[in-house]
Amino acid sequence: MKLLLIVDDEPELLLSIKSGFEHNGRFRILTAENGRDALELLDRNKVDLVVTDLRMPVMDGIELLSVMSESFPEVPHIVMTAFGTPLIEKQLKRAGAIEVLEKPLDIEALEQAVSRALDVHEGQSRSLSGLALSSFLQLVAMEEKTVHIKVFHPSGRNGSLFFRQGELIDAEADQLVGDEAALEMLSWENARVSMKEFPSPAPGTRMQSELLPLLFTAAKREEEHGSEDFSNPLEAARLELSRLEGVRNNNQQTTRQTDLTTTLTGGTMGLKDLLKKMADDLDGVLAIQVTGMDGITLALHNPSGTDVEAFSAKFAMVMKLVEKSAESLKGLGELEENLVQTKNAWVLTRFITPQHYLGIAVSREGTLGNVRLISLRYIEHIRKLLAKPE
Q1: Which domains, ranges and CATH numbers included, belong to the chain?
Q2: Is 158 helix (H, G, I), strand (E, B) or coil?
Q3: CA 352 to CA 386: how far, in whole Å?
Q4: Considering the entire predicted model, what is its pTM?
Q5: How many CB atoms lie within 10 A of CB 268?
């Protein structure tokens, strides 16, 4: 049985994959929810293949692959990601990924990809390795060998080079033949080779150039590609992933803000509805409410069922006391917000108008920066609702 390690921060997906592979007696499954846990399992087990997501907490997939390339270079890997752009796929395959699968995953498609990857890796493991392809071909020419050389790309692609008494007489790769096929294979990084018996009858000559000029042309093409070819492909994939996440987050923020403005303009959302929508954008919200400085709560959203009596009259008193203290400190300006830290929560209170404040309680696992950012985004909309006549 082959031992597979599946790495993803979604427990439901891990259970689904494990369940989906149960019927296949060829595989045994280990799972990890982040790269650090995956490395511990790699240390303790002889893993035959790793399937990893890219975006994970603690240690993401890019960092996991980087460590694997140093500490576990013999273990092949497949990447699964929701960011399957051509550029990211290209960089991941340059870094050695046998396949890049797009999420959400079809379990049957994943099973087929795993089988293909293991077959490819087993074929490559039996092949010659350790020399650059160009150097290996020069040795074949010097030894005047008659041989069929099979060339394997890390992604599973392959091609063939045919030598007769040290002369390159033919090449095939994908739909390419002759010079272009040979140049394509010479551009493959981390390629592996195996030698097979010369086919009978021997193929005809389809080469326009001899080996040495082809090697010079391949080197020149590599140089012309510049930094792209010499950059760290995993780092390039990380930069592109970060760029895509930034674009997506900006689009989501713009959409939320547009939807909110449209809803308020249409007059369809009340103060309580607005607090509920605000809570949906917050991390770890326990309770949120708008209270007057007279201690009367105007609107409350309390998804955790927390006892929030202190939010009203008692925190109104706190706000008044802190405001007076701030006034006594000349040059600091008017009080805008007050933050209380408890063992299990942050409690942030912020003035909306001189007569009203917004109170937000979030768990300590939430991000305070997120709370401040979201509250500032909603303050003006709350202020407009408070200004509307009953």
Answers
A1: 2-125 (3.40.50.2300), 133-219 (no CATH), 269-387 (3.30.450.30)
A2: strand
A3: 9
A4: 0.47
A5: 9
